[in-house]
Amino acid sequence: MENVFRPLSVVGGSVLLTLAIGWATDRLLHKADARNPESPLWGLLRRGRIPYQLVLCTALLRGSYAQAKLLDRHQAGVGRALTLVLIGSAAWLVIRIAGAIVETSYSRYARAHRDAARVRRVRTQVELIMRVVSAVVIVMAIASMLLTFPAMRAAGASLLASAGILGIVAGVAAQSTLSNLFAGLQIAFGDMVRIGDTVVVDGEWGTVEEITLTFLTVRTWDERRITMPVSYFTSKPFENWSRGTPQMTGTVYWHLDHSVPVEAMREKLRDILRECPAWDGRTYGLQVTDTTPSTVQVRALVTAKDADDIWTVRVTVREQMITWLSAHHPHALPRVNTSDAAPVPNRSAHPVDGRVRHHR
Description:
The C terminus is likely disordered. The strands form three sheets. This protein has a five-stranded antiparallel sheet with strand order 4-3-2-1-5. Strands 6-8-7 form a three-stranded antiparallel sheet, with helices on one face. Strands 9-10 form a two-stranded antiparallel sheet. A hairpin with a 4-residue loop joins strand 3 and strand 4. It has eleven helices and ten strands. With 360 residues, it is an alpha+beta fold. Helix 1 packs antiparallel against helix 3 and helix 3 packs antiparallel against helix 4.
């Protein structure tokens, strides 16, 4: 009976004690979360209850397994397996706790600051910091696991002796990876590009969706994803429309006939913008910027609070102005000279070289 009762009491007691401590800790965190609803820390810490209970159970079993006298022939192997599980679960728990603390700090910062650009910058830094912390913890956990094997400890001396050669070889082999790694840190703390920024890279317009230590993802306006190494942003020029102030000035061009009523177009532009919610009301303008033997180039300047709104303003002005010209001033549209010209409204008709200009 002792051979049966002893293992059951050791293993069962460890499991029951783990469940009891885990339940009590979870209730305390739940009460703390209810008392402090403005802080997400306690709710985030509750997400770590699985690795927490795993650490407790493994630690209790590792400390009491010798008294269980179960599988005596394999006691060393079972003990090493419990140690490996303990190291892995402890690393998992550390990552969860670090993530909860970092996320809470970011939430407080986001609530305290209204500047969207600064909040996006801190968000980018926080995510990269968490990736670095996770990578360091995982590497340390793997190293600790390997050191539990005697053969690995014996090989450590020879590895240290050849560290210089290995370092040179690894540096040459991982040159691209290391450059991307340092580029990621440079982006995070150099404020070059942030999550949520509107950028133009290789002629593609989109929003930065994800930044890691090695690559960056841009979501284009048509919902495609462009993934590129972060070193691209430290070695090549790109447009960042969100850096500084997000306000933008846009242009709209028309190629029209020389008889176009420019002053009437200015008044129509003003009316269109007043009815366009995306226009921020800062400024607008319309000028003739170029001429050719058959047309004139008319340019409108409009403003908006960000890149999305400037696109809306531009397409609205372009569409409504063309519609208005077609309905009220069709003679202002580009034409090809083929025969006698049609009379211009409010003007005397003068044939030009016996030819009339028809609309395209």
